[in-house]
Amino acid sequence: MEDELSMIEKNNTWELVDRPQNRKVIGVMWVYRTKLNADGSINKHKARLVVKGYAQVFGVDYSDTFAPVARLDTIRLLLAAAAQKNWKVYQLDVKSAFLNGFLQEEIYVEQPEGFAKKGEEDKVFLLKKALYGLKQAPRAWYSRIDDHLLNLGFAKSLSESTLYVKHNDTDILIVSLYVDDLLVTGNNIDHIQNFKQEMMKVFEMTDLGFMSYFLGIEIKQGQSEVFICQKKYAKEILKKFQMEECKAAITPMNQKEKLCKEDGADKVDEGYFRSLIGCLMYLTATRPDILNAVSMLSRFMHCASELHLKAAKRVIRYVKGTSDFGVKFTRSKEFKLVGFSDSDWGGSIDDMRSTSGYCFTFGSGVFSWSSKKQETVAQSTAEAEFVAATAAANQALWLRKILNDLNLEQKESTKILVNNQAAISISHNPVFHGKTKHFNIKLFFLREVQKEGDVVLIYCRTEEQVADIFTKSLPAKKFEDLRTKLGVCSS
User: Fold this and answer.
1) To which H or E segment does residue 199 belong?
2) What is d(CA 144, CA 387) in angstroms, rounded to the nearest whole number?
3) What is the mean pLDDT of the chain?
4) By C-alpha distance, which of 162, 185, 153 is closest to 408?
5) Membrane-spanning residues where (predicted)?
6) Among 70, 153, 240, 376, which residue carries the largest CB count within 10 Å?
7) Residue 439's pLDDT is what?
8) 3-class DSSP state for residue 117?
9) Does residue 462 contact residue 476 with C-beta atoms inside 8 Å?
10) Is the residue at 449 inside a domain?
11) Is residue 223 part of a domain?
12) Is the CB of residue 167 less than 8 Å from the CB of residue 173?
C-alpha cells in the first residue's frame, strides 16, 4: 500500500487542496490482487488504490471512454508473422500505467483511509492525472502513450488503433498495445533495445524479456516456431468445475446429438451454465478445435437444460484429454494469406439458420477463426455458403490491411477456399439474378472485392475443407484430421 502511494506521489498524480463547496468528491478504496506466473507460482502481491468510478456522473465527471485493447486476431497474427520471419516477440509492462494519463476534467477524491495527512484530514486531492477506477482513465492513458509513440516516429494502423509500426527500407519495428502491456517485435534487435530504453526514460516499466505469458496464454518461442496454448487455464477449468478426474472424450461434441431450446429436459442453474461456457469461450483464444461446440452451446445461455449441461461437460472432458494442446506457427515456403470458408445449412433446429465458419493461415497454424450463426435464414446451401464466404472476405480485407500496415503486403489476391461450386458461380455470374436478388448487397460486395483483386474464391473438395470443423460436429477420424490441419497439436 505504501509502495502504491509512493508511486502516486512520485508521478505527481494529485494535489492536496481544500474541500470544494460546489463539486462532488469521489471516494477511493483499496483493491488487492495476487499475480501468478505461468506455472501457477506467485509472482507478486499488489495493492491498488482505485477511485469509486461508479459514483461518477456522465457529462460532469467524464465524457468519452476507451480502453486500448488489441484484438486477439492481431496478436496471433503477429506471432504467426514472427515465426515466419524468425523474429522474437518481447513484452514490456508499464507500472501503474493509468497514473500517466493527463485528465481534462476537474476531479476531486477523498484521502485514502488510514493515510490522511496529519492536521489536514478534511482536505481532498485534486487529480492532475488519472487513477485506476476512473471511467476516463484508460482513455487518458491511451492518449498519453499514443502521443509518445507518434513522437517517436511510429505510424498508427488505421485498421487497428493499438498497432504501431516504424520502418525504413531495411528495418521494421512493431508495437502492439494491450492496456499496460506492450508487445514489441521486429527484424533488428538493436532497434528493439533502443526502443525499450527510450520508453523507460518516460515511463516506469518492467522488461519481461521474451513474450512467454500473456492474458493467460502461454507462448513458447523457438527457431522459426511459436507455440501458444492455455494449459494452465485448462487445468483451472477442470478444477473449478470439479472434473479433474473425469474420463476424457475424443471429440468435443457427439455427432448424432442435435441441441434445441425446448428439449423436454429439466432446466439447470443459469449462473453455473454461463460460468462454464464463459470459461470455455476464453479457452478458444488458442483452441479453435472447440470453437464450434462452445459457440453452439452459448446459444442456450438463457434456457440451459440438463442436456445442454451434459454437452458442455463433454467439451470439458475433451479438454481433459487435450489440456496441453494449442496452435503451432512454423515457417512456410510462401508467406501467403489463405482462408477457408464453410457453412452448415439450416443447422439450427430452433430457427433453421445456418452457421458460418472461417479461418486464415500463412501455411502452418491458423491465427484467425470464427464460428457464428447467420443473421438470416438461407434458402439454399449455395446461399448459406455465399453468406459464409462474404464474412470470410470481410475478414480477409481487414487482415490484408493489417499486413499492409506491417509492411507485409499481400501482392496477390487472397484465396478463400469454398466447397460449393454454386456459391462461387453466383459470385462471378450476374445471370443468377432471380435466385439472388434478396441478398444483392452481399452479392455485389463479393463480386467487387474479387474484381478489385483483393480476394478470390477457389473451389476445394469437402474432404479438404478445413473450416468444416467450425460449422458442425464431426466423426472422430475427420475431426482429428482437420484439427491437425488447423495446426492444433500438443506442446
Assistant:
1) helix 189-202
2) 41
3) 92
4) 185
5) none
6) 70
7) 59
8) coil
9) no
10) yes
11) no
12) yes
CB atoms within 10 A of CB 180: 19
For the cut 90, the answer to whether the pLDDT of residue 422 exceeds it is no
Q: Is 416 exposed, middle or buried (0-12, 13-18, 19+ CB in 10 A)?
A: buried
222 within a domain of the structure (yes/no): no
* Interval 366-416: pLDDT, tens: 999 999 999 888 888 888 998 999 999 999 999 999 999 999 999 999 999
- Rounded distance between C-alpha atoms, residue 429 and residue 427, angstroms: 6
Task: Note whether 298 and 342 are same-domain residues.
Answer: no
C-alpha cell at 206: 518492467
Distance CA 232, CA 242 (A): 15
For cell 439447470, name the residue. 268
CB 325 within 8 A of CB 319: no
| Phi, psi dihedrals of residue 49, rounded to the nearest 5° | -85, 120
Domain that holds residue 351: 332-490
DSSP string, 377-420: --SSHHHHHHHHHHHHHHHHHHHHHHHHHTT----SPEEEEES-
Amino acid, res. 355? T
Entry pTM: 0.90
CA atoms of 46 and 93, how far apart (whole Å): 14
Average pLDDT over every residue of 37-41: 74
Answer yes or no: do 15 and 108 share one domain: yes
Q: What is the pLDDT of residue 436?
A: 56
**296 CB burial (10 A radius; 0-12, 13-18, 19+):** buried
Nearest to 161 by CA among 324, 405, 334: 405
C-alpha cell at 324: 496441453
- List the single range of 39-43, 133-137, 284-288 with lowest mean pLDDT: 39-43
Domain final residue, candidates 283, 301, 321: 321
Q: Measured between alpha carbons, how far is 100 from 180 in angstroms, rounded to an integer? A: 11
Q: Give the DSSP H or E segment for 41.
A: none
Taking every pair of Cα atoms in the chain, the longest distance, rounded to a whole number of angstroms, is 85
Decide the pairing of beta strands 217-222 and 225-229.
antiparallel
